[in-house]
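Fold it.
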Amino acid sequence: MSAIFSLSAVVACYREEGTIHAMYERLTAALQSITPKYEIIYVNDGSPDGSGNILDELARKDPHLTVIHLSRNFGAQAALTAGMCQATGDAVVLLDGDLQDPPELIPAFVKKWQEGTEVVYGIRRKRERSMGKINEWLYHLFYVLFRKMSYVKVPLDAGEFSLLDRKVVEWMNALPERDRLLRGLRAWVGFRQTGIEYVRPERYAGKSTNNFWRNLTWARKAICSFSYAPLEWVSILAGIVTALSFAAIIFYIATFFSWTRLHAVPRRSSSSFSSSAASSFYQSVSSLSMCGGSSRKPRLVRGSSCVRW
């Protein structure tokens, strides 16, 4: 590792007009204390407030600052991905723009990186008080369950706040996924990784745009993207329903023929019933087999082009 290296900081911004100046000043101070070769990439994720104008004004004064304006709100994952495609540093730091990812932790990230670790991520040892004990416990419980269900070992209580070596960034940029979960892809690409604990502070200004339904959607995406469990559950359910359907068909056929013998029903009627029962059973098994067959394990394909927005 050379003494002078370049460092990029990618900041996702959405409705952060009350935070931008403080974030910019603290982030600039942190980067300047590390290396003279740095860049800050702010990604305006379709903010409806005045965030875009504030960022443009700062960029006109500071050549180290680059601003990307997305055409609409794509979400933090897409915003950070766009910044990663733009970043040119030997290492890239990912942060949210609400100052809950403290820039003062970046020197500790860089120290670990200089020691040979290619991925350094922040571990939320304690969350902000406004979240409440119950929500904090539920978040931690989700991470525990997600780690047990996932086919990659995603670190507990770790978000996107991290430092990525240049080769890690290139591998992640090359992946073809569009609807991304960066913390999962970061774990999937491998390399030497370590975490640094920190206490997550309160938001500097404004209110969080997260809510219960968004968190539920995010959890569903995480599990479906990095776990075979949902597909395996579908296969098991399909097998159980198929077995029960088969048993029910056998029972009804046996019952029907027993009934026809007792009541002397014409043979033509029993033949018609048998054909209908067989047809229904075939359709049921075919449908469930197709459902279960879709539970093949998905593969992540290594692509060769960066995500473009």
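Residues 230-293 form one domain.
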